[in-house]
Amino acid sequence: MALLKENVLIVDDDVNILELLQRQLQLLDYHVYKAVSVRQALYILKDSEIDLLITDIQMPEVDGLELLKYTSEHYPKIPKLVITGYPSVDGALNVIKSGATDYLTKPFTKDELKHAVKKSLEHKTTVIPVRNTKHSEDLNSEMIGNSPSFKKITNIINRVKDNKATVLVQGESGTGKELVSRAIHYSGKFSREPFIAVNCAAIPENLLEAELFGYTKGAFTGANENRNGFFQASNGGTLFLDEIGNASLAVQAKLLRALQEKEITKVGSQKIEKIDVRIIAATNENLSAMISQKLFREDLYYRLTVVQIVVPPLRDRKEDIGVLVDKFIRKYGIEYKDKFLNISKEALAILERYSWPGNIRELENVIQNAVIMSDRIIDVEHLPENLKFKIKFPKTSLKPLAEIEKEYIQKVLLATNNNKTKAAEILQIDRKTLREKLK
Are strands 342-344 and 130-131 parallel, antiparallel or unpaired? Predict the structure, then answer.
């Protein structure tokens, strides 16, 4: 039984070079795809099973280095051979850094091409370099990091954990504001007391006051009994008010009194109750802007900001990505696979480069999915496409119809290996018309 031919994609804006490479590779018994641009190459990569990419570097619109980076992340198993007419030490380093397996300098002999192609195809079976995750006890901690901003936060936590000063935690969604709040409570001397977390955005505005302060029987429709609120439930401990910017002005007024006087009143009651609660509030809103728009009370803002903690977005604390990745791999590896997994250096490099608009929450979701989809090593192929390298093509100007037609005919001819009969069928014209157009 004959072995299947390996599929080789060659990319070069010089049609003569493409034809020469095609003839030589076919003589070496490879099946060849051709592209005159990176844009065409991406279409072929998407629709075909490619075993080897051979590309030039110097090309118009988008160069071969961009194609190498893109292929390395979207098609990591495809080895990449670069053909260049501009050899230099720096150039060779850039080529290898961009993901090339090897490079060949023009002009080259048929034997040199044969050897380079064979050597590159052998890289399909190479072992992926792996970064060993840290299986140390610090990964069991809810809050971990190495960045200066993380150390600044932990320093503030250590200063407020043993007193009941009001704290406002600010930061984008997904940065871990509740984790910071829990760390303040559970690392201090009040850790045995209750910690109650309330998402003010998740409770309807007309019910938030009753949920926070409690209510008496008959206070409103459906109030069939006396009931304590979150303030009474957290008495002696910590009440965490997440998304505080969503509280109505009426609720804000009662929160101000609770902070100032250390007392509350249930909805429907005149009786004042003394409380001993530490308030930690959190928001991803700009409270100063809300004050100017009369949506947030200025006096409450100053009461909440006795201590302020700003949790930076993950894109500003890149040093922490590695240890967070290790933590989540350990967590979900044990939960889903009952074992420790590792991550390749290439996959980790992508995670460290990405800007993480969803912050730590998004990173955790990505690792959770990657652990499920992998067996032993999390590699590039287990990461979502939106994290990977993207080629930004320059905006093309509008072209005359004849020029667009010419480019498309060239594309079809390349795709059919210059088979004019097949090209004419695809274009739905006869061979005579095609010959005229080629002239």
Answer: antiparallel
* 199, 243 contact by CB (below 8 A): yes
Q: What is the structure's pLDDT at 2?
A: 45
CA distances from 356 to 72, 313, 331, 332 (A): 21, 8, 20, 20
Beta-sheet strands, E only, within 160-277: 167-170, 195-199, 238-242, 263-265, 272-274
- Show the tokens assigned to 226: 């006396």
> One-letter amino acid identity for 275?
I
Q: Nearest 5 degrees, angle CA 396-CA 350-CA 104? A: 70
* pLDDT tens digit sequence for 107-149: 888 899 999 999 988 876 555 667 766 544 465 577 899 999 9
Give, as one character, the DSSP assignment of residue 236. Answer: T
Rounded CA-CA distance 401/127 in Å is 49
In this structure, the number of other CB atoms found within 10 A of the CB of residue 90 comes to: 7
Contact 425, 433 (CB under 8 A): no
pLDDT at 93: 66
CA distance 125 to 206: 63
Is the preceding peptide bond at 107 cis, omega within 30 degrees of 0?
yes
Distance from first CA to last CA of the chain, Å, rounded? 44
Nearest alpha carbon to residue 308 among 332, 281, 270, 272: 281
By CB atoms closer than 10 A (0-12, 13-18, 19+), residue 206 is: exposed
Helix (H, G, I), strand (E, B) or coil at 412: helix
- For the residues of 99-114, what is the DSSP string, one character each? T-SEEEESS--HHHHH
- Owner of token pair 């040093």: 319
Which two structure tokens, joined as six digits, stand for 52? 């080897």
pLDDT at res. 137: 47
CA Rg value for the chain: 32
Name the pLDDT band for 332 (thresholds 50, 70, 90).
very high
Six-digit token string for 130: 């792996």
Query: Which of 353, 436, 361, 423 is CA-nearest to residue 387?
Result: 353
Q: 167-170 and 307-310 as β-strands: parallel, antiparallel, unpaired? A: parallel
Residue 133: CB atoms within 10 Å: 22
Q: Please list, in sequence order, all residues whose beta carbon lies within 8 angstroms of the beta carbon of residue 36, skipping any fewer than 6 positions away.
A: 11, 12, 13, 15, 18, 410, 411, 414
